[in-house]
Amino acid sequence: MKEESVILAAQKRAAIISVLTNAKQPMPSYLIFKAPEIKKFDFTWAAFQTFMSAMKNSQLVYSKKIDDPKARVGYFPFNGSTESGEKKVAKKQKVKAVSIAPNLKIDIIKSTGRVRLELNGLFIEIGVIE
Amino acid sequence: MTKRKIKKSKAVTRTIQTTYYDHKGNAVRINRSVHAHLAVAKAVDYMQLDYYQAKTVEVFDASDGTLHAVIRWRNKILEIVFKRDPKEFQ
């Protein structure tokens, strides 16, 4: 039963977006309600209004002020990715690989007769005590 | 020397729309494609990878309003709630 309601809601959303994409101008809600694609679902006016507001909240449909005596705003579908989507989907940051190989340095000091080993900042001096 | 004729590709409208929703029901991402079967496969791919952190995805044709697929996460299992019958394509 739950799955059926999910499918039905998806079909309703698809039908509303198809009506809006085919229209060249933003459509007021009463004209969307009268469309033959929407009439199949047997919407009541109140249910349709709540459904449209839910779609508006989820950023599927946007509203714009229009010059119509019966309605204040007209709806149009969003083309492209939503703003919230761009924020949420953060790009994976590249992590710079740190060299694991040890930094080994050997210095031979002729004047003192010693050998200095340097391993990642650690000094070891080897020599003969006179 | 013969001139090579370059065929002009026809403008293709991407009518198939894939909408990803998060757990609150907000649209996270809208993708568009030409072919429905490729769009559904890509939607499953992105859902499995958790690419957009989406819970539900809907694939439908924005020009005529036909629903192609509804896929969602449920109890840590990717569930295909609805898919269009392939006989309808023939």
How would you describe this protein?
The complex is a heterodimer of chains A (130) and B (90). By secondary structure, chain A is of the alpha+beta class. In chain A, 38% of the residues lie in helices and 22% in strands. Chain A is built from 5 helices and 5 strands; from the N terminus they run H-H-H-H-E-E-H-E-E-E. In chain A, the strands form 2 sheets. Chain A has a 3-stranded antiparallel sheet, with no helix packed on it. A two-stranded antiparallel ribbon of chain A has the order 1-2. Chain A is rod-shaped. The model of chain A has no long low-confidence stretch (mean pLDDT 83). By secondary structure, chain B is α+β, with helices and mostly antiparallel strands. Chain B has one domain. In chain B, 16% of the residues lie in helices and 38% in strands. Chain B contains 1 helix and 5 strands; from the N terminus they run E-E-H-E-E-E. In chain B, strands 2-1-3-4-5 form a 5-stranded antiparallel sheet, covered by helices on one side. In chain B, strand 3 and strand 4 form a beta hairpin. Chain B is elongated and about 65 Å long.
